[in-house]
Amino acid sequence: MKEVFFSIVVPAHNEALYIDKTINSLKEMEYPRDKLEVIIVENGSTDNTFEVIKKLSPPWFKIISIKEAGVSKAKNVGIENLSPESEWVIFLDADTYLGQSFLKDLSEFLRKNEDKNLGCGMVSILPYPDYKIARFWYHFYNFANRVTKTTRSIQIIRRDLLRDLRFDESLTFDEDTMMIRACRKRAKYFFFKTKKVFSSTRRFEKNGWIKQLFQWIYYASLPYEKKKKIKYKVLR
């Protein structure tokens, strides 16, 4: 079965303390090099994120630095620099990393379901560090994302849908939900079960698990115009 050409776009803003694990996981992927590109977009960092990225990244990574801070802007710059061969794009948070065989598993799933007009999706995520309360909450969030057809930490989108779709640069949060919502109008959403995607629990540990839950519910309920006025707090 022919492998999918994946493009992985990683937006990075003040991620010097976390992005090493993400970069190392991408370097160690068990996947054909000619079917994979990695684009890291450092955006407006005030720490040494860019230096860390340059130090850890192999020559075949595309490294881009822009002055403007903003996750949507960074993702859009990634889209503008995709290879013409790209079939599926994975937008990956800088504190989220992948197991070595994840892309092989995902490629097989997508190839087997090519006739179903899949266009965007999410995967199950495990916490790191891994401990009991974190596993419980991540199980809940995975269930919620599957039921509501939303995403967190990672978005997987079919390349052709991005020809005229972009992330909303007026938003500092929820840009992924808005993008997935737009994609769902054109193709089907999927949820891919895996045990090979891991995301940092730092926001939960900083804010508290219950507080973070209610904060997300509150933000999700806001009308679009109010979302544009909120500057989402960056935690590092």
TrEMBL record:
<keyword id="KW-0808">Transferase</keyword>
<protein>
    <submittedName>
        <fullName>Glycosyltransferase family 2 protein</fullName>
    </submittedName>
</protein>
<feature type="domain" description="Glycosyltransferase 2-like">
    <location>
        <begin position="7"/>
        <end position="146"/>
    </location>
</feature>
<dbReference type="InterPro" id="IPR001173">
    <property type="entry name" value="Glyco_trans_2-like"/>
</dbReference>
<keyword id="KW-0328">Glycosyltransferase</keyword>
<comment type="similarity">
    <text>Belongs to the glycosyltransferase 2 family.</text>
</comment>
<dbReference type="InterPro" id="IPR029044">
    <property type="entry name" value="Nucleotide-diphossugar_trans"/>
</dbReference>
<dbReference type="GO" id="GO:0016757">
    <property type="term" value="F:glycosyltransferase activity"/>
</dbReference>
<dbReference type="Pfam" id="PF00535">
    <property type="entry name" value="Glycos_transf_2"/>
</dbReference>
